[in-house]
Write a structure and sequence with these properties.
alpha/beta, 546 residues, 5-stranded mixed β-sheet, 3-stranded mixed β-sheet, Hect, E3 ligase catalytic domain fold, 17 helices, Rossmann fold, 17 strands
Amino acid sequence: MARKSRKNIDNTPLATEDVRQFSAAIYVRLSREEQEGCRNHASFKNQKAFLLDFVEKHPEITVYKVYEDNGYSGTNFDRPGFSDMMYDVSNEKVDCIIVKDLSRFGREHIETGKYLDYLFPMIGLRFIAVNDNYDTYDKIKDNDMIVPFKNIINAIYSKDIGRKVKSSFALMMKKGEFLGTYAPYGFLLDENRKLIIDPEASENVKRIFEMYANGESMLGICKTLTREGIDIPSVYKLKKGIIKKHAGEKDNVWKVTVLKNILSNYAYAGHMAQGKVESEFLKTGVKKLVKVPESQWVIVKNTHEGFISDDLFEKVLARRKAEYIPKAKPNANNIFKGKLYCGHCGSAMKINGSPTTKYRYYHCSKKMFYSDLCDFKATIRENDIKDVVLNSIKGHISSALDLNKVFSGINGDKEIKLRRQSYENKIRTTKREIDLNKKHRFELFEDYIKELIEADEFKFARQKYSDTISVLQECLSAYEAEYEKFKKMLMPNEWLNKFKKYKSARNLTSEMVEYIIDRITVYDNYRIEITWKFSVDTLPEWRKTV
């Protein structure tokens, strides 16, 4: 018998006329091992782009949400992204799941088969594995045998991939092969991912090494490079098209942290030092990078052509180690952190001195390093600005509380409290009932997969829970709408009551600053502008006119 030809689902979008519309979940997964070797495996970014491109060719599909599991094995279905997706499936928010291939969905063939063969057909969910040309909505099906076979292969592959990837990377590092995504500043990558010298940027690196070896400070080098208009590495790579975006300063200012990375990079001497960090995975599956002691780095000599001599490199390393002194963070006990800004250039104001210093001063961060880039002339003592801000806060509070006396009798505190509790209890109870019914409905999926209930039981119970949830959600919407109206009416009381405890405060605290102030802008002659989080203008119109 002639074999049926298989339709390529990627290139044959369904017509929009009289075609069912689908709310789709795009599911992407990368295992821990694949995550470590993302250069050789499909990345999250590529997976998502690939699947979104597929959806664009299928007008009957609308993406509801992209679900991600980064660093989770396909043999284990207890993944947060997968669970969230199945929860939304159980709540009928999703009726289509799209993956790049079957291995992204799962590598355990028995468990995968339960979803594809039993659960999804039962609830009418469309499942698409693009690269496997598998689509349960496709009328031309010849993959009933292919899917189970692929699942078995994926299960076998998953058990072996971790060991192979890790050992492969260890071998590559021992050989001195470059594993990074982008070449260090001063180098380029050839077609074989070998480091080659960048004629332009390498000259800047040479100069940095020579200046530092000759006694220049890192800050002095930064100032010189910035004033000469030399692009920082990220901006340079952006202009050359090596990267598409950068997180550097908008004003293209060299920083000491950038210089530290350059002056400690063995690549410039023609050597490869890798394995400086390793990844640890928390119980949540979140990747955490941990520094590895220098004694455990994988250092391979003479892996490529360098442009810094060994003597110069060792001289620079020796000076760096000699000058290294752990310093206390200057922002400790800085109550204005993230609030205080220069009125001339808009840069953050930084504090000098440790918490034990008798007097500490605020400076414009840009003015401190680049005097010609900001016109701010003054330094401000911490205690002085605390006094100014505290007096301003007290004046602001007094005005607000005086206004509050006008309308304080309209609603008694006891009545307001009781009404608030009533709304919150109704909403909390209704939400709890909805969550409980959703939980029971979701558990039906698991029971059906585990073959603990029959198909008829599954259908009946699922419909019962769905009807109950629908009624409860209507009630919840009504309660929340009423509560929102009530809160808008009483919103000023929230911060006015908070103000009462600050009115007689003798000292400024970080709690007061955080709660009341949005931004403080400082100008010369101690002139400040305070942007408040709350003001008289936030009062409802009816309160202003009482």
